Amino acid sequence: MCSTSDSHHRHAVGAASTAGFTIVDQRGKRVSFDGPVERIATAIIPSPSMIAAVDDSHDRIAGINESTLQANKGGVFGTLFPESRKTTTIAGADFVPTVETTLSLEPDVVIQWGDMGDEVNAPWQAPASR
Predict the structure, then answer these.
(1) N or C: which end of the chain has fewer CB within 10 A?
(2) Which PROSITE patterns match (predicted)?
(3) Residue 112 is part of a domain; what is its CATH number?
(4) Considering the entire predicted model, what is its pTM?
C-alpha cells in the first residue's frame, strides 16, 4: 500500500525517525536537530499543505502565513483539516514575521524563505535577545 490514514502507520513512521539530523538551509547555514521535529511554524504559503499531506495530519503545524489561513478558511484544505482554520499566524502575506508570536508557539523549527531580503530575514537574526 502506498499510503494509509491508519494511525498505526503514522506512529510507526514517526518511531523510525528518532535520530538527530542536520540540514543546510537556503542561506547555506547548517542547522542540526537532536531528534524529530514535533512543532513547525512556517511562513511559506504552500508548506503546511505539504507537511499535512506527508503526515496525514495537521498536528505538527503550530503557525502559518496569513494568506494560508485565509485560504484554509474557504478551501478544501480547511475541510480536510478543520484545525487548520484556527492556526496562529506568524507572518503576513508579505512574509514579514511576527517573531514574538512565533516564539510564543515554541516551535522546534521555523520555516521561512531565505532569499526574501532583509525585511523578511533580519527579524530572525537575533531572536534570542527578545
Answers:
(1) N
(2) FE_B12_PBP
(3) 3.40.50.1980
(4) 0.78
